[in-house]
Amino acid sequence: MSMQKQFASKADVEDKKVSFDRLSDRAYAYTAEGDPNTGIVVGDNAVMVIDTQATPVMAQDVIRRIRDVTDKPIRYVLMSHYHAVRVLGASAYGADHIIASRDTYDLIVERGAQDMKSEIERFPRLFRAVESVPGLTWPNLVFVGEMTLWLGKLEVQILQLGRGHTKGDTVVWLPGEKVLFSGDLVEFEATPYAGDAYFEDWPATLDAIAALGPEKLVPGRGAALMTPRAVQAGLAGTRAFVTDLYAAVKAGVAAGKDLRTVYRETFDAMKPKYGQWVIFDHCMPFDVSRAFDLATKYPDPRIWTAERDQELWLALEGEPAPASLRGAE
Ligand SMILES: [Zn+2]
After folding, report:
1. Distance (Å, rounded) from C-alpha 88 to C-alpha 85?
2. Which residues are near ligand 1, the ion (C-beta closer than 5 Å)?
3. How open is the CA angle 217-35-167, to the nearest 5 degrees?
4. Residue 110: left if φ>0, alpha if ψ -120 to 50, beta else—which one?
5. CA of 193 to the centre of ligand 1 (A)
6. Among 117, 149, 143, which Cα is nearest to 45's?
7. Is 59 helix (H, G, I), strand (E, B) or coil?
8. Phi then psi for 206, rounded to 5 degrees?
9. Closest residue by Cα to residue 282 from 18, 6, 15
10. How far apart are CA 78 and CA 243, in angstroms?
């Protein structure tokens, strides 16, 4: 019997090295070799944290690093989208305002609880001290489209530029610094997770990010992009992955192939170009499944549950069922 891949990222147990990079007087990035990033905006009178880490205990390390550069109060937490791994550490900051788009709020209502359970089981290492999570993170300041926050004289634009990684994706743009925090809309040398994605919208949303003219960018995963050229590389890499994957899946669907076949062919086609990016093996089953759904009969992502995760993994990465059990085809 061949060695089976362990479910999702259960076998990924080694801690990553954290970097805390200064992008400008006002902007910092907390990154960890491809683990989910946190962004920090330092205003005149308050600090904003963009994505929180997965648990309050993990968020304490972010707070410790913020305190190395400023003693201003952390008044704002912004959720770039609803995924548990980015938002369940929110309570640690004691912020007055937790900001999210209306679409993100709606997703938390609809599927936040299922997502929390699914994500914790997919990637246990990223939920260190998961017992410190008090429950779902609920925004208390919800906007539609865009809003501007003035942290003293610092203008902070909070923008929903289009769908991509999720339908609620929100970016933070500091026009005076030309710094952008993208959430998972942009990744760098890390595989885009697309299990809740809108593949057909994602490239136009990347165009909208590029049109702002960011000179530095904090991606959802991967190192902070510190030059216009690096920003360009991050945008181009994410666009290529999303476009290549969806094209491969659509071609398989058009040829009448089933999900398992489309998955194997897409995996083999993508592996040479993208296989070295972190969490490639983790993301591919969920990404291909969502692309297959979109190309067939599900315009909106179906809800992932811990049970559905396991079924999918077994269907795509498990041993093929013997012909005798497959029914009369
Ligand atoms: Zn995400």
Report:
1. 6
2. 83, 184
3. 65
4. alpha
5. 7
6. 149
7. helix
8. -65, -35
9. 6
10. 28
196 Cα: distance to centroid of ligand 1 (angstroms)? 8
What radius of gyration do the chain's Cα atoms show? 20
Query: 4 CA to middle of ligand 1, Å?
Result: 26
CA–centroid distance, 86 to ligand 1, in Å, is 7
Distance CA 164, CA 32 (A): 23
Q: How far apart are CA 60 and CA 51, in angstroms?
A: 13
- Write out the two tokens for 1: 């019997």
Least Cα distance to 316 among 197, 195, 165 occurs for: 195
Ligand 1 centroid – CA 83 distance (Å) = 5
Sequential pLDDT tens for the chain (329 residues)? 445 678 877 777 788 899 999 999 999 999 999 999 999 999 999 999 999 999 999 999 999 999 999 999 999 999 999 999 999 999 999 999 999 999 999 999 999 999 999 999 988 999 999 999 999 999 999 999 999 999 999 999 999 999 999 999 999 999 999 999 999 999 999 999 999 999 999 999 999 999 999 999 999 999 999 999 999 999 999 999 999 999 999 999 999 999 999 999 999 999 999 999 999 999 999 999 999 999 999 999 999 999 999 999 999 998 876 655 555 44
- Which residues, in sequence order, are CB contacts of 219 under 8 Å at separation 6+? 37, 182, 186, 187, 188, 190, 225, 234
Contact 60, 93 (CB under 8 A): no
Q: Report the C-alpha gap between 42 and 33 in whole angstroms.
A: 23
